[in-house]
TrEMBL record:
Residues 73-85, 96-107, 119-130 have a biased composition (Low complexity). One of its GO terms (molecular function) is energy transducer activity. Interacts with outer membrane receptor proteins that carry out high-affinity binding and energy dependent uptake into the periplasmic space of specific substrates. It could act to transduce energy from the cytoplasmic membrane to specific energy-requiring processes in the outer membrane, resulting in the release into the periplasm of ligands bound by these outer membrane proteins. It is found in: Cell inner membrane. Belongs to the TonB family. Residues 58-72, 86-95 have a biased composition (Pro residues). This is Protein TonB. It comes from the Bacteria. It comes from Pseudoxanthomonas winnipegensis. Residues 156-247 form the TonB C-terminal domain. One of its GO terms (cellular component) is plasma membrane. InterPro entries: TonB, TonB-dependent_transducer, TonB/TolA_C, TonB_C.
Length: 247
């Protein structure tokens, strides 16, 4: 009994020692394996850069060097550069008496040469352009002056017509309170006595109040300035703008 008694105690002690060692071994293994299991945080991505593509500025093509012929000054310089050194001065030759020159007599023109000169003058006169007649030039100038006067009369009548309508235009109170503005294109016909007819809106302002007042302005301003006598048409049809703007 004395020999078998310590066997269970020894086994328990060895079992306890093994458990303790196994626990320590598990802790050590866990500590060693922990850095490997923990994933490292990924590196932060760099901020995206803003790319702007600019078109290159157009460049003018290089001008081709123009080869100009050498001028008189350049040719003189080139000639002086290639010129040989000056030779030694030689004594001037002795003067030699010369016989006086006899005046040369020109032969009298022959009849054939006289006829050729006469025919050349006749051909030159025939090929010369005919001169413009003075009455035609005066008529052209008068027509131009009349056209300018007619255009000026039309411009003057249009200014008178707009000024006449402006004096009879009224701003509707409802549109003033609502701060409504706009331009109304009004068309109508004007007879030779200045009476307006067929008054209608060609292009409205988008405001019924302003459109109605534009029509009433033309009817209220009748009779209108009569059109010029040289303006074609009876009646004369016009389109005028009637503006409504607050100060």
């Amino acid at each position: 009994m004395s020999v078998d008694a310590p066997a269970p105690a020894l086994r328990r002690w060895l079992l306890s020692l093994g458990l303790v060692l196994a626990a320590h071994a598990l802790v050590i293994v866990a500590l060693l394996a922990w850095p490997a299991r923990t994933p490292l945080p990924p590196p932060a991505a760099p901020p995206q850069a803003l790319m702007l593509e600019l078109a290159p500025a157009p460049r003018a093509p290089p001008a081709a060097p123009s080869e100009l012929p050498p001028g008189p000054t350049q040719r003189a310089r080139q000639a002086s550069a290639r010129a040989a050194p000056p030779a030694r001065p030689t004594p001037p030759p002795a003067p030699v008496a010369q016989a006086p020159a006899q005046p040369q007599t020109q032969p009298a023109p022959t009849p054939a040469q006289h006829e050729d000169a006469t025919s050349d003058q006749a051909a030159a006169q025939a090929s010369a352009p005919p001169s413009i007649a003075a009455p035609a030039a005066d008529a052209y100038a008068a027509a131009q002056s009349l056209a300018g006067a007619t255009a000026q009369a039309h411009v003057t009548w249009q200014a008178q017509l707009l000024g006449h309508l402006q004096r009879y235009k009224r701003y509707p109170r409802t549109a003033q309170r609502r701060r409504q503005e706009g331009v109304v294109q009004v068309g109508f016909a004007v007879d030779r006595r200045g009476h307006a007819s067929e008054v209608h809106v060609v292009q409205g302002s988008g405001r019924d109040t302003l459109d109605a007042e534009a029509l009433a302005t033309v009817q209220r301003a009748d009779p209108l300035p009569p059109p010029p006598a040289d303006l074609p048409g009876d009646p004369v049809r016009v389109v005028v703008p009637v503006e409504f703007f607050l100060p």
